[in-house]
Every structure is written in C-alpha cells, then in structure tokens.
Amino acid sequence: MTALHAYPFAAIVGQPLLKQALLLCAVDPGIGGVLVRGDKGTAKSTAARGLTQVLPPIAVSEGCAFHCAPGHPATACTVCNTDPVQRQDTVPFVTLPLGATEDRVLGSLDLQQALQGGQRAFQPGLLAAAHRGILYIDEVNLLADHLVDVLLDVAAMGVNSVQREGISISHPARFTLIGTMNLEEGDLRPQLLDRFGLMVEVSAPTDKTVRAEVVRRRIAFETDPAAFGQRWQPQQDALRAQVAEAQRLLPEVVLDDAMLELISHLCCEFEVASLRADIVMHKTARAIAALQARTRVTPDDVREAALLVLPHRRRRKPFEQAGMDEDKLDDLVDQARQPEPPQPQDAHDDTQGGQAAETPSADEPQQEQEHEQEGEGGQQTFAVAAAGTARAISVAATPQSAPNTASGRRSAVADANRGSAVRAVPDVNPDRLAIGATLRSAAVRGALAGETDGPLTVTRDDLHRQVRSGRGANLIVFVVDASGSMAAQRRMEAVKGAVLALLTDAYQRRDQLAVIAFRGEQAQLLLAPTRSADLAEQGLRELPTGGRTPLPHALQLAAQVLQQAAQHTAQQAPPLLVILSDGKANVSLPGSSGDPWTETLQAAQTLAAQGVPALVLDTEAGYLRLGRAAQLAEALGAPCLTLEQLTGDALALTVRAQLGAR
Fold first, then answer.
1. Of 276, 445, 541, 656, which one is the catalytic site residue?
2. Which of 375-379, 437-441, 587-591 tops mean pLDDT?
3. DSSP structure class, residue 611
4. Is the separation of the CB atoms in 135 and 176 below 8 Å?
5. CA–CA–CA angle 467, 128, 34 (5° rounding)
6. Which of 187, 483, 519, 575 has the most C-beta neighbours closer than 10 Å?
7. What is the pLDDT of residue 428?
8. What contacts 54, CB < 8 A, 6 or more positions away?
C-alpha cells in the first residue's frame, strides 16, 4: 500500500492520547519516540503508519542512501559530498522486522561491488534509511536481544558505527522510535523501555456508537482508498500546518524555573529513578505548548507531559504494574499553582501525631494480604511468601532443537540463528552466508590458479556458513500442587514464593511460560504458553488451595501442552518442566480405576523417554516424610530440590534430559 493510500491520520476515531503523543514526537524528535501498548485491533499500527502523512516534507539529495541533512553529509556518502541535487520528500518511515539480521539493520559489505571489482564498499542498512525519519517496530517486545542491544547503542549516541568484514564506518542515525506491543506477549527490557520517551496505553472503545463509526470509516476506506483520502485531505493539511508551525515555534517556547522544579518534584514524588524522565518531560511540555501555539509552559502542560512520560518509568521490578495515581498528580500540580501556606508552630507535633495515627492503616493491606481468606467448599487462598533469588538454572538443549531455538537469555545455543558470529565453516548450501570468509576463499583460490586480473569469481566451493553463538529462551511449564495438603503449615505460601522467584528469573531471561495447577478431581491449564510473566504472576496469586491430588492428570496435561507448543511454534523453545508437589497422588486419571501413584510414575517415565528436562521441587514438610517427590524425580531423571535449596545459595544448576531414565 503506498503512502498516498495509507489510512489518513486525521480519520482515526478516538484515541486522542495516542494521536497527541505521535504529534508531539513529530514536533520534537528529540523526545525519543512513543511506545504504544494495548490489545489487538486498537489502531496502534494504523496511527503509526499514518503519522508520516501529516509531517512536513524534508530536503533530501537525489540518490542519497543515508538521508543526510542539507549541509551535514555523512563521511561515507559519495552523493552529498559531491554536488547533490536537492528535492523535497516525505519523512522516511522504515519498518524493522523482528527477524532482521544485524547486517540488514547496521549495514554490511556491498557484495555486488566486491564481486565486480574486488573493492570494499559499504551497503547502508535500515538505520541509515531511518535517519531523520521514523523507525517502526511492531511487537517490539518480541525483538531479539542482540537487536535490542544495537538499538540501545545507536539511540544513545545518534551514530551508527559499523566495524565488520574489513569495513570501519560511522554515519548519523537519529530517528523517532515508534514501537507497538501487546502485553499478553510479555514486557520490554527495562533499558529499552526507558529509551521510549512517551508511552500510551490504548484500548478498544466500549461505546457502540464509536465502534460503529470505526467500522463505517474502515469499510469506506477499503472500498475506495483514493476517494476516502481526498475527503479527509483538508483535515490532513490542517494537521500538517499545525505541526510545521509548532516546529517553527518550538525554539521560542520558555519553560521557567518554577515549571522545572515542578517537573523534578513530580519525578521524585512518583519515585522515578531515571533522570531521562526529567529531560523528556521538559521537552514534552515545551512541545505541548508549541503544538497549542503558545510560547510559555503552564502547569497543565507539565501534568499532560507527566501522563505520557512517567507511567512506564515508575516500574522498578518485575510484576510491579506501571501506572499513575492521577488524583495524586492533580494535587501536586494544584500545589504548584498556589504558594504554600505558612505552617503553624506546632506543625512538627501534628506531623508526628499524624504519622503515628496513619501507621496502622498503612499496614492494614499487608495484614489483609498475609491473612488467608476462606472460600467456598473449604478452599483457601494463601498469600505469596517472600522468597530470595532463585538459582541460575540453564537447560541443556538437544542438538535437534538448537537451530530453531527462540531468542532469550537463559541457555547457551552453540549454533544459533541470532547472536555473535564466532567462526565460518565451508558449506555449499549455507543458510547464513559468511561474506568475508567466502570472498577470502575465492581470492585465495583465484591467486593460486593465477587469476589475478578481472572481477573476482565465486564458486559454490568457496561458500562459507556463519556460525553464531547466542542464548535461547526456554518454555517453562510450571505444574503446581494446589491440593488440600498444601494448606498444612501454610506450605502454599512458600510454594507461591518459590514460583514467584522462578517467574522473576524467567521474566529477566525472556522465557515463555505456562502454568498448570492440580487440585480436586483433575488438573487445569491456568495459562497457555506466553511470554507474559505478569499474567502468570496474577494467576498464581489468585490460585486457591483445597481438595485432593490428581498428580497423574497434571503430568498428562503437561505432556500435551509441551507437544502442542512444539507443533505450533516456528521457533521452538527447549522445554523445562518444573513440578512443585509433595508427590502424594490420590486421584487416578479421568476414567481410570488404577492406582494413582503407579499412574504417576508411568506418566513421569513417559516424559523422561520423550527427553523432557525436568526439575522437581519437594514441598513436603515435617518430621515424617514419605519421600514421594524424590521418587517422582527419579522417574523423570530430574534433580530434586527443596524450596530452601532453590533459593538458599547462588549455585548454578544445569538441567539435562535423561532419556529413558527410571
């Protein structure tokens, strides 16, 4: 679809905060871009792609691959360093695919010139194409870690430096980063999250009139895109003129010391650690004033900026939800509008008395959380006990699954699709061509054959494959015992604490997660495989305890989840089965009258025969122990740890599959 027939930005129904955030970044690209979080089908991508239509055109040179600014050519640009022909063009909009390679993003050796004349020339990548424009990443939370590292470096410096295949080059790469994501697929790394200047939460409208208007406009656009665009052209032109005027006015906008103190005060009150928040709020507040054709920033501008800048920077640790207390924000901004009244002489005593009176009420939520709540049928919902840091657990991937392993940060992958290039090996049919090694092989072969003149000739025998070393994610399936025996001595609190420690580790290592709970007559899949550790944590906190122990069904269900994940996922994540139970099975498989413990061992042996790495966490407590969890671990060919051993030291643990273990 061409830019002419892209959905008009002005025609988007609702989503005022999203549209304003995008326009603010258009006014001042130094804000740092926008992260758009929300459900599917909420106009995230449509708004991002439509932004370029309302941006004023920029001056570019004919044939320039670096989008050099007039008068500031890149050193490597042969066009702008000669006598370029200037023209007006739309702002670049470059999409970074999730599966892009580093060579495509950073730039690489120009293979065509190297083959024709043996010269080393640089072929610009996506970062060069996005200079002075927009770099768009759909589902940015799924971006591979090695590409995230590249973006962090370039976003910090504004310069892309490439040193590979005998090439050393640098060029400007300043762009507006726009990312969209769905929280169901997991969150972003904190470093990249902080790089987005603004963040907007979007959701589908709940008003039937608004939803009907969305459908009406979309159908009209798909029926005749050209006519629909012409109908909205006046509004598009008005927005473009507003942005152009705001860009012109921005240098004249004044943000005085009182507003700067308010910005810093808000950052302190909302416990924002990053100093980038203060800087971005300063720029955003000025852009808001410029967009409204004003030259002075007001407290309302600062408040509006805070709603876009602070929510995603307040998150300090995994599972702590991002957000803003708008009532508190309004109070702080109202205080800035009027001078503080003088305090009475006994203010110190009143303050102490107020603190003493408020202390019990501040502790009440924690006391309520720590107190078990009685449910129907003898069920209880236990709180999560505090737990330490879980061991560094890695999974030894099988050779068959290594090449297709999903990107992550847990287990080493010897020959990964993504990661750092470690060597090149001869391969007549390479899936990842090692350009330098291939050309060197061709040059050496030609020299030995006396072929010193003419273009370089590459044959199939010269081809080399690039071997990359990286780390992969894992699919961790938690099988949690929620039967009545877990209520004894409040063991469920410790179990939830242990799972929370493992979830924190999984969040940091970009793993996929699934949660199975078993209680009563059968097991239940609480969470299908996902990257969202937040959803797993939420389900864990709400998990009730009570009833019998259908452990055989839980293992059977775990095997089904692993099998389905392997069949429906293109990039497979090596599995890890984590079982938290005392092993006291007392419910047979559905429709079976067999012995529950015998069925448990048989299911465990089947998983072991399939090569599923597993870890058993023994939740049994007290002086008299049956040791069923250890027997279960032996059948799985898995290590068995107590909850104390899981977090009691910093030792690493490598879990391997033991085929046919008994």
1. 276
2. 587-591
3. T
4. yes
5. 100
6. 575
7. 82
8. 9, 10, 23, 26, 236, 239, 240, 243
